[in-house]
Structures are given as structure tokens and as C-alpha cells.
Amino acid sequence: MQLPRRVPWATLVELDQLCQYIYAQDAHSTRNLAIERLSAWRFMTPLPHALESLLSILVAIRQDSASDFGLSSSLSLRQSYATALIRLVNGLVDPLQSGTYARSILSIAAQIGLPAWLVELRHAATHEDLPSLELLRDGAKESLTWLLHNYFLPTLNPALASPSRAPGRGPSTMVRPVEPLLRQYKSLLKTVARDASLRARHAGDISGVLREVERWLAEARVAAVQLHVGEFASGLSLYRGRQAGEVPVVTAAVDNGDGDEEVEGEPEPREAWALDRLCDALLVKGALVPISRKKRISAKESAQHPPSSLLAIWTPLLGSVTANHAHFPAVLTSHIIAHLLSGDDNPTDDEPNPDDNTTTAAAAAAEKASYDVCLATWAAWLIEWRRSADEPDTDVTARRQDAFFQLAQAIVVTAPKHETPPPRSSPSSQTGARALLTALCDSDRRLAGISDAILGARLDVSEEDDKPVWCETDLGVMEARVRAARSLSTAPRSDLHLAPDFSSDEPDFLSQNINLPDGWRLLSEQGGWRPCPIGVFTGSE
Amino acid sequence: MLSAIAARKARLQHQSPPSLKPSSKRRHTPSAGPNSSTKKARKDTSKSHSEQKNVITTTVSKEEGNISLDYSDDMSITLDQDATLIPHVRPLEPTLRERTKAYSPSRPVADSSDDESDASEQPLTDLSQLFSYNRPLLTNEEPQILSTYRPTDGQNIFPLSLDEGSALGLSGSAIALVLSPSATVSFVGAYRLRVLRGSISLLGTIIQPSRVLHHVFAPRSSPIPVIEAFVAHGESSKSLYDIPAQITSTIDEGDAIIVLQELRTGIEALGRVMRTFEGVFHQGDPEGVRNIPLRGVRLVSQLVRGMCAFQVPPSWESAFSASSSLPAHEPTGLLKPHVLLVKGQKNSGKSTFARTLVNRLSSRYRRVAFLECDLGQSEFTPGGMVALSVIERPVFGPPFTHPTLPHQAHYIGAHNPRSSPSRYLRAIQALVDVYRLDLQFATSLVDIEDGEEDDRIADLIPLVINTMGWTKGLGTDLARRIEELVQPSYIFSFEASPSNNVVEPGGPLVHTLEPITLPQRFTPSDHRALSLLSYFHAVFSDPMHPTSLGQKAASRWNTDLPLCAQPPYEITLSLALDRIVLAGAGAEDVVRTELGRVLSGALVALVSAQLPPEEIEELYTPGSPPPDPASSNCIGLALVRGVSNNGSKLQLLTPVPPEMLVNARILVMGELQLPVWGWLDFRSAEGSAGSGVDVPFLRWGRSAGAGGEKRRVRRNIMRRAQM
């Protein structure tokens, strides 16, 4: 269970209102309200750093507009501005000082996209002559704009800013590409796989590349802050992707059960972003899925897992990344599933495959099916892959379930309706998804049962298109499905608590009407009071 | 995996219990420590401070193999499940050496800033933080034996029939344990305990046969109390009651007899409220030692991971014996009340020492006064207030098990006095005045004659003062001012001061104590949160004695319902209140129109005060100071769970008994907040309250925007030049 954070606003509407107070066209009249609101919030609970610095800046601006220099010296005004800006920059930069040694503030500011001149302003205000009022005013204005784009907009639109995958993202400018690293890795491993005697000679190189990948992840993690902003700008395309029936990636799914070092169910957003980028690169043709179609599926072995030649190449990398980022397999699995369901074109490298020039649509479809099936085998393998020798079976089962539900949900939802069959998600484009579903059902009989109940029923309905949309028996079908699905989630849990069983039969002393002082009244559920979250007032005024 | 279990079993068999039974020759004096074998080990390590550090580091790295072995072995026990909820816990901490060496850009160094970082928090360089929580207190290689007692039916354990019980003045079922001299027994859980014959030591306190049923709370989250029997001789071998025949026939001359009964208070379910402490009252004993037939109690034969035993260091023992022989009279023949002040750095065992001191004194005095000056970790009240409490019974358990309504208190509203040092000092001054005027000769307290003979001193009340752990910077100055205010007759100090043991004429006697470092499984803010939640769930009204004076401790905990589902009081501001005060940095900027917003979900103190009539007019004036401690009293805390839209009504939750609310006409809001656990509904998995509404003021998931988190402070960052 992840604990929520205390925030000063009751709902995001209040934060939105504050944002309007500050940034509206005629904000000068409402900024006073914003200062009052922020002062109140500040007293209620420690504010997020962005809001706290915002308050200081607003107060300095108000002081500026009110002062006529008749009585107050401009020095105090410059000091107000300077303190506000120093604290803003420090507070933004300090959380990124995550290493043992201090990094330069300028380099961190570059990563989070804070204008460099604000950092210079901070330096001057701290160590040199107090900057001029003109410069400080500009700094305050710049800071306000920066906070709007980097704090308010992402916070008010968490869905758009969330670091889940955004198809069609432009090349990331801040992070160097990881593909060359992967290519280097792949060629090394191929060499070793062909001739085992070379293993010892290349061991150092391989571990070097693995370290390099790890370093890349660390860099990407830091750069993620910057990219959030860009992602927000391209949020519209993400939104369109969602509308088309793409299942949102659930990265939190897997790790709830194991009690190891995982203290949170979700990877930290920046780490998740970095892992996402790595997954993007891994899904490119030529990485996990080889370019040659023949190499994708092994003929001999059961087709549910990738061929052993592929496994030999990629397991060291996957293992190494997983060792440092326990969420990686889950992220990769989600990525694959999302891709299988999206019906997107295959992610290819920038340079077009020479074959593609001449392929017909049918060939492209076959190519896609082959690619998807290979990815499906990877997903199936990832789900069954044990992180450690003693990983309990329940974890594997949980992973299967999560994947199953993602798949089943999407397949049911996007199965053709008689009105408008969306062409992109037609069943034919879900070959990979169905292959994975079959693989899951093969390894878990319970899932097979549910699959029959849910997906089979769905097919029945779609065949009876001419019937009335709703009939009595549908309810029974739905209940049966709910039962089937519930049977999975109600795993037996041991309740360790001694139920304090005395309080139920003892009279409640508080509810006896003792003489309360004037103006006091004890509410009760009989009297119409209803349990509700703290912060909500129920009852008459 | 298999070999690990085998190795562990072999280790367990290696030390068989009987061989560890200490010889009873030395054990005739009740002042000896609870466990002789560990005492020896402690002496070895405590020769000098610097040497002790060396001992710890070397044994720890040597022990690393053992630790990981135990870890893989105990994977399935409940301990590990709650470990997943505690973000600070890293079960396999790197050793000291690894930690200083390994630097990698991709692995951030652990952040030292607590979620409420104060200047008084210790820096990361503190040695104790580098050890993981699960290491035992002492660096002993073998698990420490906590119970030499093994229950055997008809020999040393006797379930008492109801008749036998009522002959002893007990109601309900009970079991009697016969402990041979110097036998030890420890339990995890909550129980009531009475000594019938002989004497025992429990948490550093000697308990003689009496009619008192002591309430003992022994959660795993704090040191486990070890009951050690002493030889029954002289006075203690007689019993106040006729001991049932089935027992008398089997006991030896020197055996001690204790009676245990169930203690059901609902406190166990606080672990549901705050899941960090889930299951601390339960202990699965891995070796399968026979348990005693008592619900909610588990016999613990030896220490397992995550637990430590309560031990009294020798220097404490001598301090206690000095305090127990305080002269009751001045040389001139006047009665002489004693003021005992405990001081030291945080995390040195100050509160534990002060609590044990109160317990020790309560065997000699009928009442002991306790002045709490530590705002962060208060013993009897929730944090944030300076409180004067009167204690009549010894308390056995960590602070959250005995919330007590104070005799008088003043709300400071923060976990340290940094933002209001002068008000803090005035509050202490006011409480010391109350003690001097009303308490020290027990003038204001009416004795309840309950017909019991009580040979404890009743007309003199000693005062124990626990000071704060903030001993640097402004803290030093405050500590000195407090000493000047209270003029202690004894000072128990955890740090060797230059004026060590130098008795100035007329000045206080100074005892220097050796600090104990307990494994830090929970952070101070965890304990603060638990204390506060325990307070809000506590039920202080005693159905039997609704108006009893003296110590008003919680009798049970209403943990059936989360706070959000408990019916609140509704107050009409214009009728019930005279004033609302906001105290703390920045409070002056809160304008009247924002008051309702600020109060929503706020933690407030209920304060009674005599206000001059001309000041009553305005309910809230920005920047108005809190009532003067000299003429006010904080009755308790309340949670404002809702504010009506027009701001005319508040809904409050408070554990304060209704009859005490009459004078509470002032609300003071400080910087303290209800912990997030208190906002949640523990009955639903998501934590939101039943109706499916989102909980206001809470947000799940991480913040997306830059600067969306609270400011965090790191003090351990280094410059390249410092290499």
C-alpha cells in the first residue's frame, strides 16, 4: 500500500483556481487573493517547494508595486526579490544533488531546464553585489513563467504529464541514444555465442557495456525532468493514442506481493521514464526481435519462448538491468503488451528497411504478425522468468494474472462491434496479443477457464448482433464472469489481529448524553451524521 | 537455503537453556541487573567510548554472514511483511567499509533528511545509523536468551479456577506461574501481572507482592521486558493472600509466584491504523517453544531479528539506587521534595531512563510528578506540549501504551521549541510554579481512601523532569535556562560535563549515565505519529470511576472505527469558543477569510484560560499571541474534521472526556499535523472513506511537476575538495 501525500488543496480545482489568480490576464487584482491563499496553505501544511517560492516571489512583486520609495528603501525590495530567487533555485536544484559529492548548480539547472541566467542571478545575489532592481524584476517574471510551465501545468494535468509511453515522440535531445550501445552489446554477445572459447576474452568488454547501459539509465533518469516539459507539449498525440483504445501501461502491477527490498509498488517516475526509453530501444527491430524472420521463432522448441539463440544473447543484459531496477521486467512486459494491443506499425530504425520499398500490404501484415508473435514469446518468457531461484510461485502467478487482465480487457473491448469496427485494432492485427494470451492460458489452467468464460462469451454476443441489445440472461452471464474474475483476486490472507471484541457489547460511554458545554453537540449516525473523509463537513449549517 | 536452516538449528541446539541458568549465589540482592550473562558482555564493551566503537564495527563486519543467513531463513515470518511498508528499512545494509567506498553515479546515496528534518536530528555520520535496525543491542554472536522459564503443567504453571481467582481478588480467568530464583521469562503482547510471592524485576523496577495488577505492554517495536524472579525471603516470602493449595504443594522455599491475566484494550489494532506498526504485539516464536495459555500473549524464549531486550546498564543502576535513598527530610527536619532532571542528547535513552526513574520512585512515593519538556517524544502526552503529569502507578510499556491526561499542560504546537523559545520557557516556568504551589506537598490532591493500606509516602511528591534532546546551538542555551528555572536537586546526565560529579555547595548532585543505543527500527517521526494516533483512539473515561482524581490514563483504545468514521462533536463557534489562535511561523499572514480553510483537517489544542473580558470580542485576530501560560491550561488535543461552509460550525474529534470540555473555550492551532495514516480508512484497501469520495487534502502517487515535493534538506553532501 502506497501512502498518499498530504497536499494543501482539497481538490485540484483549488489549485487550478490559485493558478488563475496568479496567471490570469488581469492578475494584478487577484494576486492578493493568491498571496492570502498561499499564506493560509503554508500554515496548514508544508508547501511543495514550487508553491513556497512562488509565495515569496508574489510577495516581493506586491511590495514592489506598492512601494514608492518615499519611506522604504529600495534595498529591502531588492533583498526580498533576491531571497525569493535564491530560495527558488536552491530548492529546485538541491533534490537533484543525489550523489555523494556536490555537482555544479549550472549543470543541474541545465538538466531541469532552468534558465542559466537565473542561476547566475542566484550566484550574484548570494556572493556578489546585490543585482539591480531591473534584473531582479526580470528574474521574478521569468521564474513565474517557468513555474507555470514546469509546476502548475504538469500538476494540474497529471494524466498528460505522466511518464507513460508516448508514441510518436520526437528524438530526445537531452539523452544520447542507447541504440549504439545495444548494437555493440549484441555484436559482442553474438561473437561469444558463436565461439564459447572467446567468452573469457570478451568478459571484460561485456561487463563494460553492461555498466555503460547502467550509466545511460542514470543519465536518462536525470534528463527525464527536462523531458516532461516537452512531453507535455506533445501531450495531444498521446491523448489521441489513448482514444484509439490503447491500454494505459500499468507499470505498478507486478511487485506488490514480494516483500524484498521493494518498498514501493511503483518505480519512481524518472526511473520509469528511463526504463521506458530503454524498452523503446529494445523493441526496435533488430534488438529483441531479429531482423531475419527465420531467427524469430525456433522450429524445434515449443513456440512459447524465444529461441535459445536469442535468449543466449539477451538474458545477460536483461538480468543486469533487472538487478539494478527491479521493475524492469514489468515495464518491459507492459511495453510489449501495449505494443501488441496497439496495432501500431512496427517500430523500426530511422533508416527504412530496403525490403520495405517493394513489400505489398499483405507482406507487411505478415511481417507484422511475425514480429508480434516473436514479441509475444518474449513477453511470455519474461512473465515466467524467475528473478531469483527462490522467487515464490505466487509472484509468477500474479504476473500472469496482470498480463492476462491487460490482454483480456483490451481484446474484449476492441473486439469488433457491429457499428464501427475500428480498423487499427481489428483481431487480425492482434495476432501477437492472442498468441500471448494462449501462452498464458497454457501455463495457468485457471486463466484458461476465465478466458473461455470471458472471451468465449464475447464472441457469442458478437455473433448475435441481430438480437436485442440487452436481455435478462445477460445479467447471469455477467455475474458468472465477475465470479470467475473475483476468484483470482481473493487470495486467502491471514488476519493477525485480535479483534477487540469487547467494544461491541459494551455500551459506548461517549454516546451517552453527558452534559456538554454550551454550543457543543455530539453527533451520531442515528442523528443523521454519516462517516465521511476527514475534511468533509456533513450536516446542516 | 536448506543449509542455512540446518546451520541455524545447529546453533540453537548448541546453546541449551539449562547451561545458561546463572548461579543463584550472587542473586540475593534485588539490585542486580536482569541478566547476568549480558551484563558481563556490556561491561566489556563499555570500558571506553572509543574502544566500544571499534568493537562494534569489527564484530559487525564479522557478523555479516550470520545476518544474511538469518535473513534468508526468516523470510516467511511476519516481520518481513511490515518491513516492506517501511521505506527506511534496508534489511541488508552494506557494511561500513562498503558504504564509504562504493560510489556510483547511478545509485544515489541515501538521503538523510527525515520528513521533518530538524536541526536537532543527528547527522548521517552518526555511527549507529550505519547499522541496520535488526542488529541486536549487544554484539553477541549467539541469540540472547530471554526466558529460562519453560512452562510445565502442574509444576510451574497453574491455570486458576474462578474460585481460586476470586479468593485472590481477581475476576476472570488467570494463570499462575512459579518462577524459581533468578529464572527469567519474557512475553510479547499485553498482559496484567500481579506478584503473589517473592519479588520480580520488570523493566528495571522491582515489584513486591501487592494487590496491584500491573498493566504490561510489550510490543516488539520497543525493548522486550524481561521478568526476572528474585529469591523470596523475609517479607516477600509471605503472601497477602492464601495461595491455592495446588500451588503451595509444589513450590520450593525461594520460588516466586506471579499471576497473569489477559489485558484486552484494543491497542493491538493500532497496527491496523498505522500499518508501519502492524503486528508488533504478535510474535510467532520460530522455535516452537510452548506458549502459555493466555490470549494475546506469547512467550519469547530468545531474541529474534528486529527485537531487543530491555537492559539496565550498571551506571543507571547506581543512579537508581541513589535516587531510591533520597532523604525525605532536610537536615532541619522539614520535608524535602526532590526535583530530578534527566538530560542528554536525543537517542541516548533519556526517556527510557526517566520512565524507569518514575517507576522506581513510585514504589516509594504514592505519586510522582513528571514534567515533560521534550516536545518531540513525550512520555505521557502527545507531542508538541509541555506537560505536567501525576503518576500513581508504574507504567510498563512504551509511551504510546500509556497516554495520560496531564495535570496541566501548555501547547507549543511544534516538535521543538525553535520557533517559540521564550513561550516554551514561560510554559515550563508556569508548570514548575504549579508543582511548587500545588503538588510538591500534595496540597491540592484529595486522597481517595479506598481502604487499602499503602505505606508509600503520600505527603511528598518528587518531580522528574525529562528535557529535550536538542543540545546544540540555541538548545544548549535553553537547556541551561531550564536548569536555572527548575533548580533540580539531582541531575542525571548522559554526557560527561566538565562539572562532572563536582558538588557545588547547595548545587545539584550530578550523576553521569552511560547512553544506550537501541536499534532504530522506527524513526522518531514514526513514534510521534503512533503516539498521536494512540492518543486520538484512546478512551480516557473510566466507566467505573468517572470522576476519579489523579492519574487519568487511557483504559482502552477504540480502534473499531477509523477516525473518519467516528462520530464527532459539533460546536457552534459563537457559543462555544472565545478565541481561535494560530501559533507558528507565518501564522500572522493568515487572514480571517482563510481561517475556515486553514482549520479544516487541523490539529488544535483545547485551551482554557481566563481572558480579560475586553479581549473576548474578536474570535480571530491575525497575529494574536497564544494565551499566556501563567493563566491558561491545555486540556487536550482535538482534530477539526470538518468546517461548515459559512464557517460557523466546526466538527471536532477529541478523546478528552466530555466533562472536561466546559472550560475549553480557546482553540490553538500549531504546526503539528495529523499523520497521513490518521486520515485513511483502514477498513478499505485504498484508504479512502467508505463513500467512495476522494479524500480531500491527500494525493496518491508522485507529484508530476518540478518542485512538487516538500523541500528536502541534505546535510551530508560533500565537495570534491573534501576528498
Automatic annotation (TrEMBL), chain A:
It comes from the Eukaryota. GO terms for molecular function: endonuclease activity. InterPro entries: Las1 (IPR007174). Signal peptide: none annotated. GO terms for biological process: maturation of 5.8S rRNA; maturation of LSU-rRNA. One of its GO terms (cellular component) is preribosome, large subunit precursor. This is Las1-domain-containing protein. It comes from Russula ochroleuca.
Automatic annotation (TrEMBL), chain B:
Keywords: ATP-binding, Kinase, Nucleotide-binding, Transferase. One of its GO terms (biological process) is cleavage in ITS2 between 5.8S rRNA and LSU-rRNA of tricistronic rRNA transcript (SSU-rRNA, 5.8S rRNA, LSU-rRNA). It comes from the Eukaryota. Residues 13-22 have a biased composition (Low complexity). Residues 43-52 have a biased composition (Basic and acidic residues). Pfam families: CLP1_P. Residues 344-508 form the Clp1 P-loop domain. Residues 1-61, 89-122 are annotated as: Disordered. One of its GO terms (molecular function) is ATP binding. InterPro entries: Clp1/Grc3, CLP1_P, P-loop_NTPase. GO terms for cellular component: nucleus. Belongs to the Clp1 family. NOL9/GRC3 subfamily. This is Polynucleotide 5'-hydroxyl-kinase GRC3. It comes from Russula ochroleuca.
